Amino acid sequence: MTDGAARRESRTSEPGSQLSTRPLDGVRGMAALMVFVSHLGVVGYFPAIRGYGQLGVVLFFVLSGFLMGLLYMNHVLAIREWGQYALRRIFRVYPMYVVTVVGSLLLFEGLGFGLPVKSESLVDHLTLRFATHHLWTIPVEIKFYACFPFVALPVALIGSSRIRIALIAGLIALLMAFAPRDDVFAVWGYLDFFLAGVLAAQLHLDARAAEARGVERSARAAVWSAAVVAGFACLALLIPAASERALGVRFQPFSDSWATAPPCFLIVLAATRCGGWVSGLLTSRPARFLGSVSYSLYLTHAHVLRLVHYRSSLPAPLKIAIITALTLLVAWICFRFIETPFREVGRRLATRLAVPPLAARAAS
Question: Could you tell me the pTM of the whole model?
């Protein structure tokens, strides 16, 4: 969770508060690692964990829903504020996606490696109608951003937190049971994951309000820490090969959302309340670094992986070390020189939009 607003929220927690969103940066980094390691498995290094990356994507979706719920569900936004929301989301996600798509096209058609983005599919990629390989998740996420206001506005109008929670939980149950999942690029097939994050955000906001009123906490930080560990353990068990071997059932991370969404929901909710070594791990400098570069790492790692794996004859351990080091370097460069500047542009445009036109003219 790398959005500036979310970080401000974590910094403004009361001293001694058990609630903090800072560990979610580490959770986001873990999700990126799950995808990265899973793709190492796809090319043969760790074949037993193929499919783990799809669970990482589910965790990303839940985290995105949590962020949206945390920032925008607690009050009714005006039209101008929704404009700010759109600008921030577009400049947060789309520029780096465009750079990745265009870069993939140049690498694939010019040098013959990387993701198979072709000239004839470029427009479909840029208009979010289609995306190859793991890039398919970005159109889905942007479509969630587009439909989120239609979920947030009616829910925000409901004054009772219990009714909000019941409504969101009911929507999740309906989507798990009836949402069509035959179209990979339709957001409806993944909306239950995003709403699981929104539900976690509502529970987080309720807990924060209760803490501010001096209501005693229901569980110690150690319990929530154990819940984080249990959530990740469940995800490991849900790797298709692992679940088939241990349980005799081969779970599919996206279609079996009733099984895969709850552990991710638990991880996100519990991470905001955990303590001890779990909190220390998730808020450590390496974890926060992974969280900050996770989006660029997610988008670019396959290029490095394919280049080193298919274009060199080095021993496997050395290949893995080089792939890892180069992936982190490329992710940091993209985060520093592409993501961050465009995010700042979005922030500035959103800030300008927040100033009423008459006041802006008077100030000038």
Answer: 0.90
